[in-house]
Design brief:
This protein has 14 helices and eight strands. It is mainly alpha-helical. The chain has a three-stranded antiparallel β-sheet with strand order 1-2-3, covered by helices on one side. A three-stranded antiparallel β-sheet has the order 4-5-6. Strands 7-8 form a two-stranded antiparallel sheet. Strand 4 and strand 5 form a beta hairpin. Helix 1 crosses helix 2 and helix 11 runs antiparallel to helix 12.
Length: about 350
Amino acid sequence: MRRPRGMGAVYKRGRVWWFQIRGQKAESSESTLKSVAETKLNQRLAEMRVGHVTATEPSLVTYEDLEGLLLTDLRANQRRSVEDVKKYRLPHLRSFFGGMRAREITYDVVNGYVARRLAGAAASTVLYEVKLLKRMFAIAHRAALVDRVPAFPTVRVGDNARKGFCSPEEIERIIGHLPDHAKPLVRMLYLTGWRTSEVLGLTWGRVDFEAQTIRLDAAHTKTGKAREFPFGRLPALATLLRDQHKKTMVLARKRGRVIPQVFHMDGEALRSFRTAWRNAVREAGLPGLRPHDLRRSAARNLVRAGVPEGVVMKLCGWRTRNMFDRYNVTDTRDLEEGVEKLTAFLAAVRRRKSRAARD
């Protein structure tokens, strides 16, 4: 069936389907399925309609219009999650709500979506998708494109706090089983608590050996806020960076080219170390431990060292106290130390009272 005039076109080049909007350059759907090209074309049309649907026609607003508003809002706010949302989150919502008018998306309909998704997805995933849908309506309502934001069902997640961590002794065991190119990377993750993507993407231009500080600008952090880490006050990290810099310079001279990455594999950018990590934790007797658990471990180490929580949040890059609390997990050892401190306090009180009685 031919698409209505002005609604673009899809066509095949070889085995791949392409789509095009009149007056614009053709785009590949990167798929051999026509339905994928149709979906991407409808999504692009929805994005173009943002701002062109008037407040007098809310009944005409579709789910595709809402999706376009969300993507535009994410891009306008330079959210790094936009590609993740576009690739992994929206397809599930689109398969259920696609083609619906906004006024048809009610509490009962969304509840049906939740029930269906919970059959095959984690509650936290479903909760995130429902929040995206609610965000779509909130944006559309502010733009006067819909006359109401429907009620949304509650998705119970339970205890979603992170729980994995490792001790200084355990991280040394893991590092002992890692290949040479991954050892300094993992050690830095454990010492700083920075995100894996931030450390993998670290370049020498952000390492100031004179000021002894690592600086990340806002564009390279998940929170969108610049951050720095004064590594000169942490001898283990300072030695690590100097050794890594020396090795990199030797290799750069040998290859006759600049190596901008701090952590690399034989001069090539290191994109991932998942296989090396899985093998190392298994051989160290700690299967199931994830690289992201090192971030939690760093938070615990800093707090136990007496660093104020506000400073820990700035060093590691947590923007809200709620998120920080999810990483600063208390375990049995913390509880035991707390009770020991209570015992010492009560004993001191009894000693003071005993001395006062004798006097």
